[in-house]
Amino acid sequence: MLRRSMLFMPGNNPGMLQTAEVFGSDSIILDLEDAVSLGEKDAARILIKGALKTFNYGTTEVVIRINPFSTPYALEDIDVMARLKPNAILLPKATPEDMKKLDEMLTKIEKEEGFEEGSIRIHALVETTYGVETVYETIKMSSRVDSVCLGGEDLAADLGVARTKDSEELFYARTKVVNACKALKIDAIDTPFTDTNDEAGLLADTIHAKKLGFTGKLSINPRQINTIHKVYSPTADEISWANRVMYAKDEAEKEGLGVFSLDGKMIDAPIITRAMNTLNTARVIGLIK
Amino acid sequence: MKILKPAKAGTLESNDISIMLMPGNNGIEIELESIVEKQFGAEIRTLIENTLKELGVEDVMVKAIDKGALDYTIKARIETAVTRAGEM
């Protein structure tokens, strides 16, 4: 599934829950954690339960961010939310130990509810220094993990440094998360850009993260979705290049050539894979048939 | 299900409804203010009453201030308030 954008929505806000799909993000994250005050956790669970039973969010991935295991809320969050069969749970402050606990709880609930085993997926929100250092083990702990999302604000606090506009302080974490995700063939989702009024800054930050290997970006405001999609959607030039690569590949195969060139550059298996991925993404988002 | 103590749920923001429950002795009594009172007042009262009955509440005084909540929100806020007001 395509996850260019994953948009946070406060779990205790009825207006946001009923319009969650209209902003066009690939995933929506209904939040029980930071966006819900301590005294309203019960209300948010009940409201999300009602929303999921009422609205059809179509092809948008529905993800629930639970509270961390270090709080008194996590167990009830999982017990109530998993029985609603969301597409996925977002595990905050993810570690290998907490991933194991969450996976075991989901397996138990799936059995009790008669859901297919493994059908509730997990996204791991890595936002601590320990989480960064153990990210590979965290992903390996459960076959349910579809992505790692990077949480830059909490991570900077754990590092004891300030967040900066160019996110220099996150460079190690970003590359480590991307490498672990690529090694295990799952999505790597970048930290949100928190200045919602700075569109140019968001664009630059998203382009930079894409260059590092991220496949999508968390979002804290619906206004950010178009910019993120613009970066993570193939351009007309990229689609044209991919089509030419595939055409040249077909021609080379007819001539029995293993390696061939296009515009003076050698085309081999990794380039062909990149071209195929570009065309596949373009198809999924309807840019080509 | 008995309402043991006063309890509130919901907010006064748009698309929400503020619900206050208080112990009562005369069945389900509802006081409603709504921005859509003329169009949907009767339906909202019926929904509140039916939701309370489904939760097993027989005696309660309800003060509701509606800011255009959909049914799912009204039901959720009632359920939250009932949970906070006593044992489910």
TrEMBL record, chain A:
What region holds the HpcH/HpaI aldolase/citrate lyase domain?
4-222
Q: Which GO terms describe its molecular function?
A: lyase activity
The cross-references to InterPro entries, in alphabetical order and at most eight, read: Aldolase/citrate-lyase_domain (IPR005000), Citrate_lyase_beta/mcl1/mcl2 (IPR011206), Pyrv/PenolPyrv_kinase-like_dom (IPR015813), Pyrv_kinase-like_dom_sf (IPR040442)
Keywords of the record, alphabetical order, are: Lyase, Magnesium, Metal-binding
Q: Name the domain of life.
A: Bacteria
The prosthetic group or cofactor this protein requires is:
Mg(2+)
Q: What is this protein called?
A: CoA ester lyase
Source taxonomy lineage? Bacteria, Fusobacteriati, Fusobacteriota, Fusobacteriia, Fusobacteriales
From TrEMBL, chain B:
Subcellular localization is given as: Cytoplasm
GO MF entries: citrate (pro-3S)-lyase activity
Report any Pfam family annotated for this entry: ACP
Q: What is its EC number?
A: 4.1.3.6
Q: What is the designated name of this protein?
A: Citrate lyase acyl carrier protein
Q: What keywords appear on the UniProt entry?
A: Cytoplasm, Lyase, Phosphoprotein
Which top-level group of life is the source organism from?
Bacteria
Looking at its record, which EC class is this enzyme?
lyase
| Keyword Lyase tagged | yes
Task: Please tell me whether the keyword Phosphoprotein is annotated for this protein.
Answer: yes
